[in-house]
Design a protein that fits this description.
Layout: H1 2-28, H2 37-52, H3 62-76, H4 78-110, H5 112-117, H6 130-144, H7 156-165, H8 172-184, H9 188-202, H10 204-213, H11 218-229, H12 232-239, H13 243-260, H14 262-265, H15 274-287, H16 292-312, H17 323-349, H18 351-355, H19 357-369, H20 400-426, H21 430-449, H22 452-481, H23 488-519, H24 526-538, E1 545-547, H25 554-557, E2 563-564, H26 590-593, E3 598-602, E4 614-619, E5 623-628, E6 637-640, H27 645-661, E7 665-670, E8 675-677, E9 688-690, E10 693-695, E11 700-708, E12 712-722, E13 726-730, E14 733-738, E15 750-751, E16 755-759, E17 762-770, E18 784-793, E19 801-806, E20 820-823
Parallel strand pairs: 1-2, 1-3
Antiparallel strand pairs: 3-5, 4-5, 6-20, 7-19, 7-20, 8-18, 9-10, 10-18, 11-17, 12-15, 12-16, 12-18, 13-14, 13-17
Length: 824
């Protein structure tokens, strides 16, 4: 699966984009440089997938239509492909080697945490759970298109799909993602991060075109392209798989590249506008109508150029011939046809957004005006736009020397950007200069009127533009160095050294910033989600199922069980539960549970067993599935027994009186035997205690003693959030090494799979070791939080025993170690 998701799937997607790009190039007149073909092909495929998924009948054919478009492109563009192959065979790779390498390098860098972990996963797990909705949405749209009439709005998946995709939420990236992944038969949960990485890598094409326009080539152009594509803020958004913004970023840079290339197509046939229109439409489909703000920058620049061509015409060149009037009319007619063709293509390729324009505008307004900062506890800093931010997450602020160095590198980039802006004007690259200026104006405007969440997106989408300006400063210094020497040896030495030194400072700042985020990334637990997928296959169609864990990725993994997640943003309508918290079944009214034939719980001996109406159907490493007994009535009352003895007795009496009045009996659940280990009293280095648990911030050992009452095999359980490798030993003998065990929610610690140890009766010592490990390993600086440690007899797990007691004998239950009691 790892090879399929991270290597085969992106290769197939890249071929789809390249083939579609060849088709667009052939239809539009053959003016596109090779570096732009994949990005423009992706835009074309987004347009195709949006059209096919608009219809419930055509949606399932989307993967095959995407393949058909790509095959048509390779067939029509076979001459160009053959010429490129011949050029490479004749040694052209020496000339075009950098162009071929930068896309691959960008993909490897963007997917580095997953690639170097060697397992299918996705990075910065739990930082932005919106990715769960995109997985669910992509699967639904390819299977059902824009048909939401059959959704079950009582449970979570139906509510999510209805609230997002039935309200004109932008789905351009999702339909391309779903269609391409279905073609390769790779689970969307494992294809999601590779898709994001490849979409970002496609942005190297337009970035290269822009870099070449400012005069850089060779290794400097390659470094500049990678720095523009992977600045710290963009890299952070890619790690959290912010798919809409990553897809839109490539479209923004492609619009800029097409502005730079306007002499090749703006005066051509009306079909020459096809690439520009497709890219603008793809941006709108991916990001929403808010993308219009960025598309407008390119439109304004091109409109000025067109107007100048039409209005000034021959008169601007001093022509007085009679034919000049006819020439002006011809140019005006050509310009109108160009605009009309572009408008038609953009309308068709983003049809869904335009047909419900009011809904699209409302979505954009809600996103721009929301007071919810999402995963941003504090607003991002404007200095982050300059590409460098030396900390493990773009959401955090560096401290100490890292903060000082971040600002130092930012000031260097800012000075280079000012120099670069002047140099672009000096080059008379007025179209590029105008586009860059308008891009900065859009950022300033959005920042002035936006909120924290929208400001962060605008900052990220503008960062590559500012980094491009900084690299224009490198180009300026290089041009200065290549002028005839004057001013003595010192000036000559400075002139030759300044460009590479500045280039290394800019590229080094970006590389180190990205490496620190790579180091601090958290990866999704592969084995646990594979187990969820197996549950979906095993129990498909037997739902609805109540899912007690807070894990919104279960929306996709359990999509055939119609899950209800009480702690989700959209919980089952019959169950009230605080968002972000696992469900407490003791708080759910018994009558409500009758709607759920299945309950899926985590294996956790400290959690309450489901009510007596349910029996254990299946137990895996991480999950248990409980089924409601056929015909089982709802309990008259179900009460969790917490608190002191008097409180427990009072609750037992209340339930007993209710049972007596209905001729029923009492059913109680006794928990498994648990031997607790006090982490707070354990011996450990200067690890800090927090509300989340013990933060194992650096290498060291935790040791704690415990006593088991009898000999035998015991299960050792750990709860917490552990990304880097942590060793577990009992009495000096290592029994396991744990890593990548996370829930993605620090306030809901992960209950890890039990570790088996054969122990004699009496005292023992457990040791938890965080070693120095491999500092280059992905997530080596990720979460390492230990919340609790305990033991249970082997196999006991969470299978609490049920006890039936006559209601009249309720006093015998006072003080008994029961999880809950119910009247049945």
């Amino acid at each position: 699966m790892f090879v399929l998701a991270t290597l085969l799937y992106p290769c197939v997607l890249a071929l789809l984009c390249a083939g579609a790009g060849l088709l667009v190039d052939r239809v539009s007149g053959g003016f596109l440089p090779g570096m732009l073909l994949p990005a423009i092909g992706a835009a074309g495929l987004i347009g195709v997938s949006q059209l096919t998924t608009y219809s419930v009948f055509a949606a399932p054919a989307t993967p095959y239509l995407l393949a058909l478009v790509a095959l048509a492109g390779f067939a029509l563009g076979r001459g160009r492909v053959a010429a490129a192959g011949a050029l490479l065979r004749d040694g052209g790779w020496r000339r075009f080697g950098w162009q071929l390498a930068i896309g691959v390098l960008a993909y490897v860098a963007a997917l580095a945490p997953v690639l170097f972990a060697g397992r299918p996963s996705f990075s910065s797990y739990g930082v932005l759970t919106d990715s769960a909705f995109h997985m669910l949405g992509a699967d639904f749209l390819i299977r059902h298109g824009q048909d939401f009439s059959h959704l079950d709005l009582r449970n979570s998946p139906g509510q999510y799909l209805n609230a997002y995709y039935n309200t004109s939420y932008p789905s351009g990236a999702d339909t391309l993602f779903g269609g391409s992944a279905f073609l390769v038969h790779v689970p969307l949960i494992w294809a999601f991060q590779p898709f994001n990485a490849l979409m970002l890598a496609l942005a190297t094409g337009p970035a290269w075109v822009l870099v070449r326009r400012i005069g850089l080539d060779g290794w400097l152009a390659a470094l500049a392209t990678l720095s523009i594509t992977l600045p710290a803020l963009v890299y952070g958004y890619e790690l959290i798989a912010s798919v809409k913004e990553i897809a839109a970023l490539g479209m923004i840079l492609t619009l800029g590249a097409l502005v730079v290339l306007h002499p090749r197509w703006l005066r051509g046939s009306p079909l020459a506008v096809l690439p520009f229109a497709l890219v603008a439409a793809a941006g709108i489909s991916a990001l929403g109508v808010a993308f219009g703000a960025w598309a407008l920058t390119a439109v304004i620049v091109l409109a000025v150029i067109l107007i100048r061509e039409v209005v000034v015409g021959d008169a601007a060149r001093g022509a007085v011939a009679a034919g000049s009037v006819a020439g002006d009319r011809s140019r005006a007619r050509g310009a109108l046809l160009l605009v009309a063709a572009g408008g038609c293509v953009a309308l068709l390729a983003a049809l869904g957004s335009w047909l419900d324009l009011s809904g699209s505008l409302q979505v954009a307004k809600n996103i721009a005006a929301t007071s919810n900062p999402g995963n941003l506890q504090n607003p991002l800093r404007s200095v982050q736009i300059l590409g460098t931010w030396l900390v493990d997450s773009y959401k955090h602020v560096p401290t100490g020397a890292h903060l000082e160095l971040s600002y130092a590198l930012a000031y260097i980039a800012l000075a280079a950007a000012v120099l670069g802006a002047a140099y672009i004007v000096y080059l008379r690259a007025f179209a590029l200069a105008a586009w860059l200026a308008l891009m900065l104006a859009v950022w300033l405007g959005l920042t002035a009127y936006g909120t924290t969440w929208a400001d962060g997106k605008a900052l990220m989408l503008t960062s590559p533009v500012v980094v491009l300006l900084a690299w224009s400063g490198v180009a300026a210094l290089r041009a200065f160095a290549q002028r005839p020497a004057s001013g003595g040896t010192l000036r000559g030495a400075f002139g030759w050294m300044a460009p590479p030194v500045l280039a290394l400072a800019l590229a080094g700042g970006v590389a180190v910033s990205d490496a620190m985020q790579y180091h601090g990334s958290n990866l999704a637990p592969t084995a646990r989600y594979d187990e969820l997928a197996s549950l979906d296959s095993r129990f498909a169609g037997r739902g609805p199922a109540l899912f007690t864990d807070y894990d919104e990725y279960a929306l996709y993994e359990l999509r055939n069980l119609d899950v209800g997640g009480p702690g989700f943003m959209f919980p089952p309508r019959s169950i009230a539960q605080a968002e972000g918290q696992p469900a407490d079944l003791d708080q759910v009214p018994p009558a409500t549970l009758r709607a759920y034939p299945l309950i899926v719980t985590r294996r956790d001996p400290t959690a309450s067993r489901p009510p007596a109406a349910y029996r254990l159907l299946w137990q895996g490493t991480y999950y248990e599935v409980w089924g409601r007994r056929p015909g089982a009535p709802a309990a008259l009352a179900h009460v969790g027994l917490v608190g002191g003895l008097s409180a427990q007795c009072s609750r037992v009496e209340h339930v007993a009186r209710l049972a007596e009045s209905h001729g029923g009996q009492l059913i109680g659940a006794s928990p498994p035997e648990i031997v607790g280990i006090d982490v707070a009293r354990a011996s450990h280095p200067a690890w800090r205690e927090s509300r989340l648990g013990l933060l194992m911030s650096r290498p060291g050992h935790l040791t704690a003693r415990f006593v088991v009452p009898r000999a035998g095999t015991w299960d050792l359980w750990l709860q917490g959030e552990i990304m880097p490798a942590v060793g577990v030993s009992v009495d000096g003998r290592q029994i396991s090494s744990i890593s990548g065990q996370l829930t993605g929610v620090a306030t809901d610690p992960d209950t890890m799979a039990p570790l088996h140890a054969r122990l004699s009766a009496g005292s023992h010592q457990v040791t938890i070791t965080r070693g120095s490990g491999n500092p280059l390993a992905p997530g080596a600086g990720g979460s390492a939080i230990l919340d609790s440690i305990f033991l249970t007899p082997a196999g006991a797990g969470s299978q609490a025993r049920l006890h039936v007691t006559p209601a009249a004998q309720w006093r015998s239950l006072c003080g008994e170690p029961l999880e809950w009691i119910e009247a049945g």
